[in-house]
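anyone seen this seq b4? input:
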Amino acid sequence: RVDATSGFLGRKKDGEFLFQYKVAVTNTADTTVQLVGRHWVIKNSDGSVEATVPRGSPGVVGQKPVLHPGQSFEYASGTTLKTPTGSIAGSFQMVRIDNGRTGDGFDARVEKFLCDADATVGAAPNDF
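predicted toks r here
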């Protein structure tokens, strides 16, 4: 399961809107899994693509966490948008680990979540 939230941090000198987002990945399966890659598409409210992270880009925040059944991994990162609202969506590439051996791979989809400067004014990183 993947849960994500975002918070507005303010505007940069160039006028771009700065957001922090927090992602929690929880292993709801009965086998151990490892997060090995990611894919992101970050869009402005007009539909233009602000940034992409290609499928298979290694890990998240420099890590490839191993999650045993019931365990979670959380991390925070950030992005900028040219518009006061936008969205982030994508997937995590995961592999099953059985008896220390890497097994089948699968995608854990990250449903689109919003970045909205008006809805999250004053949200600080420790509010997450």
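The mean pLDDT is 91. The first strand starts at residue 2 and ends at 11. kinda curious what u guys think
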